[in-house]
Write a structure and sequence with these properties.
The chain is an alpha+beta fold and 700 residues long. It is built from nine helices and 42 strands.
Length: 700
């Protein structure tokens, strides 16, 4: 209903007519992101009640009227600069405030505020009334505010945020990645009728879609819904479910009459037999239906929830692979942090999409969204692109023994809020947290977290991740799948150790489901190095040449693809990201393991290595182009290409390129360089189209 029509409604004196018009209006969800004011306090500041719309804060027992505000729009973080420089960043409280005037005609409806993400603790006040608190910087949360606002008048919304590390909220520190402060994801104002799908069930959609007996012939689609009414008597309504194809055509409809109790929730389960379904088949064919669940009373739609539906079956078989709809699925995996230079975590949809499209260009088929729940936009993009997705909570890096309740809360939120995304195939319960025995906190809590996920969602797998290359640690035996983070040749051993390790795992644990959940090495794109040499110290070293990262990925991907015990692998990381506590590799506060620079403007050699291996589109790329200052007259050239034959010319002279570690790796040995500039060209054909690349090396 547009604003002009709303104004006309409450000017009409007929109360009954007004009520019917309002009743005819179903759920309305509006952006609540513009026109905020922001104030960053010092760490000693404690914000409290706001008297009659006045803004006050208390510091060291003194009350002061707050008048210095910055105008901002959401998403917004107050750490986009300092957390990307060094460890001297601000962590603490900040206040956001916004005024709005809801239509007077909405007073017979319900009003909610939904936050997609606030780092890391949020306290909500409406007109000075304390509504509630949410702990955790990555999950969504919703509060009902209709009893605290004045319809037809101006109202003040105040949100106090705090990203200071706490022992009782995961992650408990900023060591592996920064927890950016602020309302860094969008906010939504939701209005519903008094009879509606539940909005406040940990910000879930109130509708949960399960699939049974999926095949090309048919699929059983289970739609489970939670409904409630704020009317004083039972509501006789019709529960309607429509499945639409990707053109919007209704292909299946199911209806049933129900009574909604004025007390508690009313639970409903509808089963729809979908004949000859078009299957969601990952990147091969990410086909999406949509499901509309409706509450209808006397022909009027009281509420509707729209969700995507990807019909698929997923099975992990130890030692064989991942099978999507009964066919083996190539698990070409990457990881991703929600972090970007100059923006932090306050990213737009366009920025999320740009990240996902670069990952698609690489040829990835699966993505691990580490180490926390990411934006709902990212999961939706994964659905539409076709990435099989690993979603997890930020129980990571360290334990405090005070985080149990919050970890369980975030596990339930992750599953409930993302239940209907067909791309998600596995829930992650922890990453690199440890105990000495199976009786201690981590194994016990991991079992409980896995049980929460499996109870809420029996149809998906769970995974726990160890940073040791040991399969049977007690910390990681509570889930369906074992994840191993190991950086052979970086944090221990040699690059070539990955292959023998995988072979031993195959021998000793042939029936275990194993995923290589992280591997790789840092690489500074601005540091070239002629010789291949491992950094002497990967913790305090200040020079991480790119060529060592490139060699790591060349050798280790070649080993991964030869060892089927590794059901899936996830290189670390798609993008460089901030780590305030680090000063390594020549760039302060940066993890340089990304294959794409922090600003998204440059792609490293390793990016093109995976593109040659994973993306079937014809390509050719000369590696080591930034190692362009040469001292050896005789040298080696390597290139990445998925063409069947390549040609290499150095200063016009042709050399024969031979396959290296696999069919996408081409090597030319004993190339003769001349003093000064050397023009190196690579050529190849796919059909009638020629593909070329060129670089320049300089010999002293």
């Amino acid at each position: 209903m547009n604003s002009i029509f709303r104004k006309r409604c409450f000017l009409i004196p007929l109360v009954l007519f007004t009520y019917q018009l309002t009743l005819a209006q179903s759920r309305v969800e509006e952006s609540f992101n513009d026109g905020w004011k922001f104030y960053k306090a010092n760490n000693s500041t404690f914000f409290t009640d706001f008297d009659n719309g006045q803004k006050y804060f208390e510091s060291q027992g003194q009350w002061t009227k707050l008048e210095v505000w910055e105008d901002v729009n959401l998403p917004h973080t107050y750490n986009k600069d300092d957390m990307q420089k060094d460890r001297n960043f601000y962590e603490g409280k900040a206040v956001y405030q916004k005024t709005f005037t809801p239509a007077e005609s909405d007073q017979n409806r319900r009003t909610f505020l939904k936050f997609e993400g606030v780092g890391a603790v949020a306290q909500l006040f409406v007109n000075g009334n304390y509504i509630g608190e949410h702990k955790g910087g990555y999950s969504m949360f919703t509060f009902e505010i209709g009893h605290s606002i004045n319809y037809g008048k101006e109202n003040t919304i105040t949100v106090i945020t705090d990203n200071k590390s706490r022992r009782d909220i995961i992650p408990i520190n900023h060591f592996l990645f920064p927890v950016y402060g602020g309302i860094y994801r969008p906010v939504h104002l939701i209005s519903t009728n008094k009879t509606n799908f539940v909005v406040t069930d940990q910000a879930s959609p109130g509708v949960f879609i399960r699939q049974k007996n999926v095949s090309k012939q048919s699929a059983d689609i289970h739609v489970e819904a939670k409904l409630e009414t704020r009317e004083k008597v039972y509501q006789d309504v019709e529960f309607v479910v429509e499945i639409k194809d990707n053109t919007g055509k209704v292909v299946e409809t199911k209806k049933q009459p129900i009574k909604i109790s004025p007390q508690g929730y009313t639970y409903i389960n509808e089963v729809i037999k979908l004949k000859s379904p078009h299957l969601w088949d990952g990147v091969r064919d990410p086909y999406l239906y949509s499901i509309e669940s409706k509450i209808v009373s006397k022909g009027q739609e009281l509420d509707v929830v729209k969700q995507t539906l990807g019909v698929r079956s997923i099975e992990l078989i130890a030692g064989k692979g991942v099978f999507l709809n009964g066919k083996k699925y190539p698990m070409f995996g990457v990881t991703r942090h929600q972090d970007r230079e100059g923006f932090g975590s306050a990213l737009s949809f366009e920025q999320h999409k740009e990240d996902m499209m670069m990952i698609k260009e690489m040829g990835a088929t699966t993505i691990r969204l580490a180490h926390y729940q990411q934006s709902s936009d990212v999961y939706a993009l994964a659905d539409s692109i076709g990435f099989l997705t690993w979603a997890e909570i930020p129980f990571v890096n360290r334990v405090s023994y005070y985080e149990n309740d919050n970890a369980k809360q975030q596990m339930a939120e992750l599953v409930k809020q993302n239940f209907n995304h067909p791309s998600i195939y596995i829930w992650g319960v922890h990453n690199e947290v440890y105990s000495k025995t199976a009786d201690e906190q981590v194994p016990v809590l991991s079992r409980e977290l896995s049980d929460i996920a499996k109870t809420l969602d029996p149809d998906r797998y769970t995974v726990a991740v160890s940073g040791y290359n040991v399969i049977d640690r007690p910390d990681n035996l509570s889930t369906d799948v074992q994840g191993i983070n190991h950086y052979f040749g970086w944090y221990g051993g040699k690059i070539e150790d990955l292959g023998p390790w995988a072979q031993k795992v195959q021998k000793d644990f042939p029936e275990y489901k194993i995923i290589l959940s992280e591997y790789g090495a840092d690489g500074n794109i601005d540091i070239g190095q002629e010789e291949l040499e491992a950094p002497k110290d990967v913790v305090t070293g200040k020079s991480f040449p790119e060529n060592y990262q490139t060699e790591t990925h060349i050798q280790q991907w070649a080993a991964i693809e030869k060892n089927p015990i590794i059901l899936a692998s996830y290189l670390w990381n798609s993008f460089e990201f901030a780590v305030p506590a680090w000063n390594r590799g020549g760039v302060n506060a940066r993890n340089l393991k990304g294959l794409i620079t922090f600003d998204r403007k440059r792609k490293k050699d390793s990016f093109y290595w995976y593109k040659a291996n994973w993306n079937p589109e014809p390509m050719i790329y000369l590696a080591n182009r930034r190692d362009n200052m040469r001292t050896h007259k005789q040298t080696k050239i390597q290139l990445f290409s998925n063409l069947s034959k390549v040609q290499v010319l150095v200063n016009g002279k042709e050399y024969t390129a031979k396959p290296g570690v696999n069919s996408k790796h081409w090597v030319v040995d004993a190339v003769e360089l001349k003093t000064g500039e050397n023009i190196i060209q690579a050529k190849g054909k796919s059909g009638d189209k020629e593909f070329t690349d060129e670089m320049i090396w300089n010999l002293k």
